[in-house]
Amino acid sequence: PPLHSLISAPDFQEVASHVLTPKAWAFYSSAATDLVTHTQNKALIRRLMFRPRVLRDVKEVSMKRTILGCESEAPFFVSPAAMARLAHPDGECALARGVGSQGVLQCISSNASYPLSAIVKAGTKDQSFFLQLYVNSDRPKTAELLQKAAALGIKAVFVTVDAPVPGKREADERIAAEAVASAISGAVASNDKKGGGMGRLMAQYVDKSLIWKDIAWIKKVSGLPVILKGVQSAADAIMAAEYGASGVMLSNHGGRSLDGAQPSILVLLELHRICPDIFNKLEVYIDGGFERGSDILKAIALGATAVGVGRPYLYSLTYGDGGVEHLTQILKDELETSMRLCGITDVDQAHPGLINTQDIDHM
Ligand code: FNR
Protein backbone atom coordinates (compact mmCIF):
# COMPACT_ATOMS: atom_id res chain seq x y z
CA PRO A 1 0.00 0.00 0.00
CA PRO A 2 1.13 3.59 -0.63
CA LEU A 3 2.89 5.22 2.30
CA HIS A 4 0.31 7.99 2.76
CA SER A 5 -2.42 5.39 3.35
CA LEU A 6 -0.65 4.26 6.54
CA ILE A 7 -1.85 6.30 9.50
CA SER A 8 -0.58 4.46 12.59
CA ALA A 9 2.30 2.38 13.92
CA PRO A 10 0.11 -0.77 13.86
CA ASP A 11 -0.51 -0.07 10.14
CA PHE A 12 3.26 -0.30 9.57
CA GLN A 13 3.37 -3.55 11.53
CA GLU A 14 0.61 -5.03 9.39
CA VAL A 15 2.44 -4.13 6.17
CA ALA A 16 5.77 -5.37 7.52
CA SER A 17 4.25 -8.75 8.38
CA HIS A 18 3.52 -9.17 4.66
CA VAL A 19 6.54 -7.59 2.98
CA LEU A 20 9.45 -8.62 5.20
CA THR A 21 11.09 -11.96 4.46
CA PRO A 22 9.79 -14.65 6.84
CA LYS A 23 13.18 -14.63 8.58
CA ALA A 24 13.27 -10.85 9.04
CA TRP A 25 9.68 -10.84 10.32
CA ALA A 26 10.53 -13.66 12.77
CA PHE A 27 13.66 -11.90 14.01
CA TYR A 28 11.99 -8.51 14.43
CA SER A 29 8.62 -9.54 15.82
CA SER A 30 9.74 -12.39 18.05
CA ALA A 31 10.06 -12.26 21.81
CA ALA A 32 11.04 -14.77 24.48
CA THR A 33 9.17 -18.09 24.91
CA ASP A 34 5.46 -17.46 25.61
CA LEU A 35 5.56 -13.70 24.85
CA VAL A 36 4.13 -12.88 28.30
CA THR A 37 6.34 -9.85 28.92
CA HIS A 38 6.11 -8.74 25.30
CA THR A 39 2.31 -8.79 25.40
CA GLN A 40 2.00 -7.26 28.86
CA ASN A 41 4.36 -4.36 28.09
CA LYS A 42 1.70 -2.95 25.82
CA ALA A 43 -1.34 -4.23 27.71
CA LEU A 44 -0.35 -2.50 30.96
CA ILE A 45 0.37 0.84 29.30
CA ARG A 46 -3.18 0.61 28.01
CA ARG A 47 -4.54 0.03 31.52
CA LEU A 48 -3.28 3.43 32.65
CA MET A 49 -6.04 5.98 32.14
CA PHE A 50 -5.78 9.71 31.62
CA ARG A 51 -7.35 12.29 33.90
CA PRO A 52 -7.62 15.09 31.35
CA ARG A 53 -7.96 18.73 32.38
CA VAL A 54 -10.08 21.12 30.35
CA LEU A 55 -10.38 24.79 29.38
CA ARG A 56 -6.67 25.55 29.22
CA ASP A 57 -5.94 27.23 25.87
CA VAL A 58 -4.16 24.47 24.00
CA LYS A 59 -3.65 26.34 20.73
CA GLU A 60 0.17 26.33 20.78
CA VAL A 61 1.95 23.13 21.75
CA SER A 62 5.65 22.30 22.20
CA MET A 63 6.99 18.77 22.33
CA LYS A 64 10.65 19.71 22.52
CA ARG A 65 12.79 17.85 25.01
CA THR A 66 16.46 17.75 25.95
CA ILE A 67 17.64 14.15 25.93
CA LEU A 68 21.08 13.64 27.51
CA GLY A 69 22.04 17.15 26.56
CA CYS A 70 20.76 16.83 22.99
CA GLU A 71 17.89 18.88 21.61
CA SER A 72 15.01 16.76 20.38
CA GLU A 73 11.81 17.84 18.67
CA ALA A 74 9.90 15.15 20.56
CA PRO A 75 10.16 13.13 23.81
CA PHE A 76 10.80 9.85 22.02
CA PHE A 77 13.73 8.32 20.13
CA VAL A 78 14.71 5.21 18.20
CA SER A 79 15.57 2.30 20.49
CA PRO A 80 18.59 0.32 19.33
CA ALA A 81 17.72 -2.71 17.26
CA ALA A 82 20.11 -5.03 15.46
CA MET A 83 20.32 -5.57 11.72
CA ALA A 84 18.06 -2.89 10.27
CA ARG A 85 19.28 -3.93 6.84
CA LEU A 86 16.84 -6.83 6.90
CA ALA A 87 14.06 -4.25 6.48
CA HIS A 88 15.73 -2.04 3.87
CA PRO A 89 19.05 -2.09 1.99
CA ASP A 90 20.01 1.27 3.57
CA GLY A 91 19.28 -0.06 7.08
CA GLU A 92 20.41 2.18 9.94
CA CYS A 93 21.50 4.90 7.46
CA ALA A 94 17.90 5.27 6.27
CA LEU A 95 16.79 5.39 9.91
CA ALA A 96 19.26 8.20 10.52
CA ARG A 97 17.96 10.19 7.56
CA GLY A 98 14.31 9.57 8.42
CA VAL A 99 14.48 10.72 12.03
CA GLY A 100 17.14 13.35 11.33
CA SER A 101 14.74 15.27 9.10
CA GLN A 102 12.29 15.27 12.02
CA GLY A 103 14.75 16.35 14.70
CA VAL A 104 14.41 13.03 16.51
CA LEU A 105 17.32 11.05 17.99
CA GLN A 106 18.54 7.53 17.28
CA CYS A 107 20.36 5.06 19.49
CA ILE A 108 22.51 2.83 17.28
CA SER A 109 22.80 -0.89 18.11
CA SER A 110 26.19 -2.54 18.68
CA ASN A 111 24.87 -5.10 16.22
CA ALA A 112 23.94 -2.61 13.49
CA SER A 113 24.32 -3.74 9.91
CA TYR A 114 26.25 -0.60 8.89
CA PRO A 115 29.51 0.77 10.32
CA LEU A 116 29.11 3.46 12.96
CA SER A 117 30.83 6.08 10.80
CA ALA A 118 28.49 5.42 7.84
CA ILE A 119 25.40 5.82 10.01
CA VAL A 120 26.66 9.03 11.59
CA LYS A 121 27.57 10.36 8.16
CA ALA A 122 24.08 9.59 6.82
CA GLY A 123 22.61 12.09 9.29
CA THR A 124 22.63 15.86 8.99
CA LYS A 125 25.71 17.80 10.08
CA ASP A 126 24.45 18.60 13.57
CA GLN A 127 22.48 15.39 14.16
CA SER A 128 23.23 13.67 17.47
CA PHE A 129 23.42 9.92 18.05
CA PHE A 130 23.71 7.53 20.97
CA LEU A 131 25.42 4.13 20.89
CA GLN A 132 24.04 1.01 22.52
CA LEU A 133 26.81 -1.20 23.88
CA TYR A 134 27.15 -4.91 24.36
CA VAL A 135 30.44 -5.41 26.17
CA ASN A 136 32.63 -7.89 24.32
CA SER A 137 34.36 -10.66 26.31
CA ASP A 138 37.38 -9.46 24.37
CA ARG A 139 37.60 -6.18 26.31
CA PRO A 140 40.08 -4.36 24.02
CA LYS A 141 37.51 -4.64 21.22
CA THR A 142 35.01 -2.78 23.38
CA ALA A 143 37.58 -0.14 24.30
CA GLU A 144 38.29 0.39 20.62
CA LEU A 145 34.57 0.76 19.80
CA LEU A 146 34.05 3.24 22.64
CA GLN A 147 36.98 5.35 21.54
CA LYS A 148 35.74 5.31 17.98
CA ALA A 149 32.27 6.35 19.16
CA ALA A 150 33.68 9.26 21.14
CA ALA A 151 35.77 10.36 18.16
CA LEU A 152 32.69 10.27 15.93
CA GLY A 153 30.85 12.58 18.32
CA ILE A 154 28.41 10.02 19.77
CA LYS A 155 26.70 11.71 22.73
CA ALA A 156 26.03 8.86 25.18
CA VAL A 157 26.44 5.12 25.67
CA PHE A 158 23.46 2.91 26.51
CA VAL A 159 24.94 -0.21 28.10
CA THR A 160 22.53 -3.08 27.75
CA VAL A 161 22.27 -4.91 31.07
CA ASP A 162 19.21 -7.12 30.58
CA ALA A 163 20.82 -9.61 28.23
CA PRO A 164 24.01 -11.25 29.57
CA VAL A 165 22.59 -14.15 27.59
CA PRO A 166 19.89 -13.92 24.95
CA GLY A 167 16.33 -14.97 25.74
CA LYS A 168 14.86 -17.97 23.96
CA ARG A 169 12.98 -16.60 20.96
CA GLU A 170 11.29 -19.54 19.36
CA ALA A 171 9.95 -17.92 16.18
CA ASP A 172 13.52 -16.78 15.42
CA GLU A 173 14.96 -20.26 16.13
CA ARG A 174 12.48 -22.00 13.84
CA ILE A 175 13.61 -20.24 10.65
CA ALA A 176 17.10 -20.77 9.29
CA ALA A 177 19.26 -17.65 9.16
CA GLU A 178 21.19 -16.55 6.12
CA ALA A 179 24.72 -15.70 7.13
CA VAL A 180 24.65 -12.00 8.01
CA ALA A 181 27.15 -9.99 10.02
CA SER A 182 27.11 -6.76 11.98
CA ALA A 183 29.53 -4.15 10.63
CA ILE A 184 30.04 -2.79 14.16
CA SER A 185 30.45 -5.80 16.44
CA GLY A 186 31.40 -8.27 13.72
CA ALA A 187 28.84 -10.72 15.16
CA VAL A 188 27.69 -13.26 12.61
CA ALA A 189 24.41 -15.14 12.49
CA SER A 190 24.36 -18.55 10.86
CA ASN A 191 22.68 -21.70 12.10
CA ASP A 192 23.54 -24.46 14.53
CA LYS A 193 21.84 -27.50 15.95
CA LYS A 194 19.59 -25.43 18.19
CA GLY A 195 18.18 -23.55 15.22
CA GLY A 196 18.55 -20.29 13.35
CA GLY A 197 18.08 -17.84 16.21
CA MET A 198 19.76 -14.68 14.92
CA GLY A 199 19.43 -12.99 18.28
CA ARG A 200 21.10 -15.90 20.02
CA LEU A 201 23.85 -16.43 17.46
CA MET A 202 24.80 -12.76 17.35
CA ALA A 203 25.05 -12.58 21.14
CA GLN A 204 27.91 -15.05 21.45
CA TYR A 205 30.54 -12.37 22.00
CA VAL A 206 28.68 -10.70 24.87
CA ASP A 207 30.49 -10.73 28.22
CA LYS A 208 28.35 -12.66 30.70
CA SER A 209 30.57 -11.64 33.60
CA LEU A 210 29.84 -7.91 33.47
CA ILE A 211 29.38 -6.35 36.92
CA TRP A 212 28.58 -2.98 38.49
CA LYS A 213 32.14 -1.80 38.77
CA ASP A 214 32.61 -2.16 35.01
CA ILE A 215 30.37 0.89 34.55
CA ALA A 216 33.21 3.13 35.73
CA TRP A 217 35.50 1.54 33.14
CA ILE A 218 33.02 2.22 30.32
CA LYS A 219 32.70 5.83 31.46
CA LYS A 220 36.43 6.26 31.64
CA VAL A 221 37.25 4.70 28.29
CA SER A 222 34.51 6.53 26.39
CA GLY A 223 34.45 9.80 28.32
CA LEU A 224 30.68 9.74 27.70
CA PRO A 225 27.58 9.63 29.90
CA VAL A 226 26.46 6.07 30.53
CA ILE A 227 22.84 4.94 30.67
CA LEU A 228 21.96 1.44 31.85
CA LYS A 229 19.46 -0.05 29.42
CA GLY A 230 17.38 -2.86 30.86
CA VAL A 231 17.00 -1.83 34.50
CA GLN A 232 13.95 -3.67 35.84
CA SER A 233 13.71 -2.84 39.53
CA ALA A 234 13.91 0.13 41.89
CA ALA A 235 16.81 -1.62 43.65
CA ASP A 236 18.90 -1.55 40.48
CA ALA A 237 17.93 2.04 39.67
CA ILE A 238 19.31 3.03 43.07
CA MET A 239 22.52 1.11 42.36
CA ALA A 240 22.79 2.75 38.95
CA ALA A 241 22.92 6.16 40.63
CA GLU A 242 25.48 4.91 43.17
CA TYR A 243 27.73 3.54 40.43
CA GLY A 244 27.79 6.76 38.43
CA ALA A 245 25.28 6.14 35.63
CA SER A 246 23.71 9.30 34.20
CA GLY A 247 20.47 7.53 33.56
CA VAL A 248 18.55 4.29 33.38
CA MET A 249 16.39 2.93 30.62
CA LEU A 250 13.58 0.85 32.08
CA SER A 251 13.36 -1.96 29.59
CA ASN A 252 13.05 -5.70 29.22
CA HIS A 253 14.37 -5.72 25.67
CA GLY A 254 10.85 -5.63 24.26
CA GLY A 255 10.10 -8.92 26.02
CA ARG A 256 12.98 -10.61 24.22
CA SER A 257 15.08 -11.42 27.30
CA LEU A 258 13.46 -12.91 30.44
CA ASP A 259 9.89 -13.88 29.70
CA GLY A 260 7.75 -13.09 32.73
CA ALA A 261 9.86 -10.08 33.67
CA GLN A 262 7.61 -7.26 34.82
CA PRO A 263 6.50 -4.82 32.11
CA SER A 264 8.53 -1.62 32.00
CA ILE A 265 5.62 0.60 33.02
CA LEU A 266 5.39 -1.31 36.32
CA VAL A 267 9.04 -0.55 36.97
CA LEU A 268 8.32 3.14 36.40
CA LEU A 269 5.53 2.98 39.01
CA GLU A 270 7.85 1.06 41.35
CA LEU A 271 10.37 3.93 41.22
CA HIS A 272 7.64 6.33 42.39
CA ARG A 273 6.74 3.99 45.24
CA ILE A 274 10.19 2.95 46.44
CA CYS A 275 12.66 5.68 45.46
CA PRO A 276 10.81 8.79 44.28
CA ASP A 277 13.92 10.93 44.63
CA ILE A 278 15.68 8.86 41.95
CA PHE A 279 14.08 11.16 39.35
CA ASN A 280 16.29 13.97 40.70
CA LYS A 281 19.44 11.85 40.50
CA LEU A 282 19.06 10.07 37.18
CA GLU A 283 17.40 10.61 33.87
CA VAL A 284 14.79 7.92 33.44
CA TYR A 285 14.03 6.48 30.01
CA ILE A 286 11.70 3.63 29.14
CA ASP A 287 10.78 1.37 26.24
CA GLY A 288 8.69 -1.68 25.38
CA GLY A 289 5.27 -1.63 23.78
CA PHE A 290 4.96 2.09 23.03
CA GLU A 291 3.25 2.57 19.70
CA ARG A 292 0.89 5.52 20.17
CA GLY A 293 1.44 9.14 21.06
CA SER A 294 -0.90 8.60 24.01
CA ASP A 295 1.30 5.68 25.22
CA ILE A 296 4.29 8.02 25.16
CA LEU A 297 2.46 10.77 27.03
CA LYS A 298 1.61 8.36 29.87
CA ALA A 299 5.29 7.57 30.51
CA ILE A 300 6.29 11.23 30.26
CA ALA A 301 3.60 12.20 32.77
CA LEU A 302 4.98 9.54 35.10
CA GLY A 303 8.45 11.09 35.00
CA ALA A 304 10.25 9.56 32.02
CA THR A 305 12.40 12.04 30.10
CA ALA A 306 11.78 10.21 26.85
CA VAL A 307 10.44 6.95 25.47
CA GLY A 308 12.25 4.52 23.17
CA VAL A 309 10.42 3.09 20.17
CA GLY A 310 11.82 -0.20 18.86
CA ARG A 311 9.88 -2.47 16.52
CA PRO A 312 7.62 0.23 15.03
CA TYR A 313 10.70 1.94 13.58
CA LEU A 314 11.99 -1.31 12.08
CA TYR A 315 8.59 -1.87 10.49
CA SER A 316 8.49 1.68 9.12
CA LEU A 317 11.87 1.07 7.51
CA THR A 318 10.23 -1.23 4.97
CA TYR A 319 9.43 2.10 3.23
CA GLY A 320 12.98 3.43 3.65
CA ASP A 321 13.68 6.85 5.13
CA GLY A 322 10.29 8.12 3.92
CA GLY A 323 8.57 5.52 6.08
CA VAL A 324 10.69 6.42 9.09
CA GLU A 325 9.90 10.08 8.61
CA HIS A 326 6.19 9.35 8.17
CA LEU A 327 6.02 7.22 11.33
CA THR A 328 7.79 9.97 13.26
CA GLN A 329 5.22 12.52 12.07
CA ILE A 330 2.38 10.19 13.03
CA LEU A 331 3.76 9.73 16.56
CA LYS A 332 4.29 13.48 16.92
CA ASP A 333 0.74 14.20 15.70
CA GLU A 334 -0.77 11.66 18.06
CA LEU A 335 1.26 12.99 20.96
CA GLU A 336 0.30 16.58 20.19
CA THR A 337 -3.38 15.64 20.05
CA SER A 338 -3.15 13.72 23.34
CA MET A 339 -1.39 16.65 25.01
CA ARG A 340 -4.08 19.09 23.88
CA LEU A 341 -6.84 16.74 24.99
CA CYS A 342 -5.14 16.43 28.38
CA GLY A 343 -5.02 20.22 28.67
CA ILE A 344 -1.25 20.74 28.43
CA THR A 345 0.83 22.74 25.95
CA ASP A 346 4.36 21.63 26.83
CA VAL A 347 5.71 18.19 27.72
CA ASP A 348 7.17 19.77 30.86
CA GLN A 349 3.60 20.31 32.10
CA ALA A 350 2.87 16.58 32.08
CA HIS A 351 2.71 15.26 35.65
CA PRO A 352 1.56 12.11 37.48
CA GLY A 353 -1.76 13.72 38.38
CA LEU A 354 -2.77 13.35 34.74
CA ILE A 355 -2.67 9.57 35.03
CA ASN A 356 -5.02 7.26 36.90
CA THR A 357 -2.82 4.27 37.79
CA GLN A 358 -5.30 2.51 40.11
CA ASP A 359 -5.87 -0.46 37.89
CA ILE A 360 -2.23 -1.56 38.05
CA ASP A 361 -1.09 0.00 41.34
CA HIS A 362 -1.07 -3.26 43.24
CA MET A 363 0.70 -5.40 40.67
C1 FNR B 1 16.10 -5.22 19.88
N1 FNR B 1 16.57 -4.67 21.07
C2 FNR B 1 17.92 -4.48 21.23
N2 FNR B 1 18.40 -3.90 22.35
C3 FNR B 1 19.70 -3.68 22.51
O1 FNR B 1 20.09 -3.15 23.54
N3 FNR B 1 20.59 -4.03 21.54
C4 FNR B 1 20.19 -4.62 20.38
O2 FNR B 1 21.00 -4.92 19.51
C5 FNR B 1 18.81 -4.88 20.22
N4 FNR B 1 18.37 -5.50 19.10
C6 FNR B 1 17.02 -5.65 18.90
C7 FNR B 1 16.57 -6.20 17.71
C8 FNR B 1 15.21 -6.28 17.47
C9 FNR B 1 14.75 -6.86 16.17
C10 FNR B 1 14.28 -5.82 18.43
C11 FNR B 1 12.80 -5.88 18.20
C12 FNR B 1 14.73 -5.31 19.63
C13 FNR B 1 15.62 -4.17 22.09
C14 FNR B 1 15.21 -2.75 21.77
O3 FNR B 1 16.26 -1.85 22.00
C15 FNR B 1 14.04 -2.28 22.65
O4 FNR B 1 14.35 -2.45 24.01
C16 FNR B 1 12.72 -2.97 22.35
O5 FNR B 1 12.57 -3.22 20.98
C17 FNR B 1 11.59 -2.07 22.84
O6 FNR B 1 10.37 -2.65 22.66
P1 FNR B 1 9.40 -2.32 21.40
O7 FNR B 1 9.35 -0.84 21.19
O8 FNR B 1 9.96 -3.08 20.25
O9 FNR B 1 8.11 -2.89 21.90
Automatic annotation (TrEMBL):
Record flagged with keyword Cytoplasm: no
Cofactor(s) recorded in Swiss-Prot or TrEMBL = heme b; FMN
The reactions it catalyses are:
(S)-lactate + 2 Fe(III)-[cytochrome c] = 2 Fe(II)-[cytochrome c] + pyruvate + 2 H(+)
What's an example GO cellular component term for this entry?
mitochondrial intermembrane space
Q: What is its main location?
A: mitochondrion
Question: For the FMN hydroxy acid dehydrogenase domain, which residue ranges apply?
Answer: 1-360
Keywords attached to this Swiss-Prot or TrEMBL record, sorted alphabetically, are: Flavoprotein, FMN, Heme, Iron, Metal-binding, Mitochondrion, Oxidoreductase
Single GO MF descriptor: metal ion binding
| Protein's cellular compartments | Mitochondrion intermembrane space
Its Enzyme Commission number(s) read 1.1.2.3
Query: Subunit comment for this entry?
Result: Homotetramer.
What family is this protein classified in? In the C-terminal section; belongs to the FMN-dependent alpha-hydroxy acid dehydrogenase family. In the N-terminal section; belongs to the cytochrome b5 family.
Q: What is this protein called?
A: L-lactate dehydrogenase (cytochrome)
Species annotation: Lophiotrema nucula
Full protein segment contained here: 125 to 487 of 505
